[in-house]
Amino acid sequence: MKLKELGEFGLIERIRKATPRGRGVRIGIGDDAAWVECRHHSLLITSDLLIEGIHFDLQWSSFYELGCKTLAVNLSDLAAMGGIPAYLVLSLGIPVDFKTEDVEQFYRGIRELASRSGMALVGGDTSASEHFLICATVVGHAPWGPITRSGGKVGDDLYVTGTLGDSALGLEILKKGGIKTEEDEVAYLISRHCFPTARLKAGALLAKERLAKAMIDISDGLLQDLGHLCKASEVGAVIWHEALPLSGPYRSWSGDRGASCALTGGEDYELLFSLRVRDRGRLEKLQKRLGVPVTRIGKCVLAREGIKVLNAQGEPLSFPVQGYDHFKSGL
Amino acid sequence: MKLKELGEFGLIERIRKATPRGRGVRIGIGDDAAWVECRHHSLLITSDLLIEGIHFDLQWSSFYELGCKTLAVNLSDLAAMGGIPAYLVLSLGIPVDFKTEDVEQFYRGIRELASRSGMALVGGDTSASEHFLICATVVGHAPWGPITRSGGKVGDDLYVTGTLGDSALGLEILKKGGIKTEEDEVAYLISRHCFPTARLKAGALLAKERLAKAMIDISDGLLQDLGHLCKASEVGAVIWHEALPLSGPYRSWSGDRGASCALTGGEDYELLFSLRVRDRGRLEKLQKRLGVPVTRIGKCVLAREGIKVLNAQGEPLSFPVQGYDHFKSGL
Fold this sequence. Notes:
2 copies of one chain form a homodimer.
Chain A: H1 3-6, H2 8-18, E1 25-27, E2 34-38, E3 41-51, H3 63-79, E4 84-94, H4 100-116, E5 120-128, E6 133-141, E7 157-161, H5 166-176, H6 184-194, H7 200-208, E8 214-218, H8 222-233, E9 236-240, H9 248-253, H10 260-264, E10 270-275, H11 280-286, E11 294-301, E12 307-310, E13 316-317
Parallel strand pairs in A: 4-5, 9-12
Antiparallel strand pairs in A: 1-2, 2-3, 3-6, 4-6, 7-10, 7-11, 8-10, 9-11, 12-13
Helix pairs in contact in A: 3-4, 3-7, 5-6
């Protein structure tokens, strides 16, 4: 069978099934980060591979932006487990014709975000390559025990941080015009694409206070990542279309597509988590310390009900695109 | 400046200089692995990026072999610091036209070697890509404190494990004939290329017994890696041409090139280490437990004397190729 028939998630599932868990491994393949033991201390490890022409295009982002974004993507995985970043290992494949200054700008982005997150760049590998390749691995601590994707229960509320769909619209604007304008709304959407914010503070606090029961970061679109959370938690979900948090710029620029970019657009790097209904009050009180607003967008239901998006009248809406599969979408 | 002018090691040096060390970091950029603290426990982290067409060619190795080799390369870095492997994170870029079975054979190689080394595959990332890309990150323990490249002193002996140059000859034979023959000597050389052995047992024992003072694995050719060790230790080195450990098959197949492949050929994944002269007896006694023979090949001298290879008459020999620079050799 060709990979494009099996798909990315089919492959991951096969690898997971064939891989023994091993000593000291609390969570292996299949969550946002691996959770391993180091002398009775919980460590999280997460890795992301970014490839020029597939994950990013140097037409739409500067080397500095790319450095920031590379790291934000990884930190978002850690945030989704309530972890605190500590060490970064960065392996790069670099075309030999690149300017040294450009590579240094990339590292400047990396260093700035690393330093802001209390993380140290400790090593990696470099090689020549045809396209620019970035493989970033982050090791972090999970002092309160990580939050996995699997703790959701029927009846739980579903929340997201921030607003959804801004990044997808930002990329769309970049691709259409390609110009980085000064116009506030456009600049906002583009910056949400180029400088996503990993919700480290919110993730750690939700873990520390034991509020989030299941958590995932939204990198491939809300519906797809909600699907992962539901599968791991063995629940279904109802999402209220009217409740989705949309920014002002999103409303101006999404045209007649309503919330569809917010449901299926990628690279938001917001957190999606489930909360027991009895904890609503505690979450409310914590709100200000999270560093980002949170919005209740739906609830967990029985698995057999699947995932539904309901309009204000309670009627189900359908969304054809359900996110991104690296292999199935092809090259 | 273009990267191909600065070169791989120039780039690494620039990155190292610009990167603050950070909390908990004992050794950052520039050794075989990073050495970080986790609750007063020493962790080692090492990462390697392997790219189809640059580091490997699927013409010369099966997916299973490639899986084994990928891991051996990483484990060798850990061995060179006297570490014990624990966790593996593997990120792959895979062409969508690859067969699922091939990818599974690759993982079989990974799993077999991981399991033999007491290591667990805990996660990673997968993506579509034009060429096959492998980024493997290994986290390990260093219970006896890691051996760095910088502990060599003038007067120290220099030793290597195993034999040198076999892998380079094996690759040459593969490229010429391309046929995996049953002939013993040829099969041996090819297997040294396709299935290198990370010297984990030797590395850990040399660290535990505090015998190796400076250590590095030979991945880019003896002379180049010796250069790294000498630079970090601020010493020079004399290598005795006649003392280089060459296998029987090497002697049969190296033709009139003598030890030149052993000095400059890549991918041996043997260990090079320095030893205080007074420890020769202790090393002798330990020999059998190392799992591989060790050979004294030279000694550390004053830095200003540089690195020399001497023939039986004590005359210096010159070797034009000094290993591999990913950027300078170009694509």
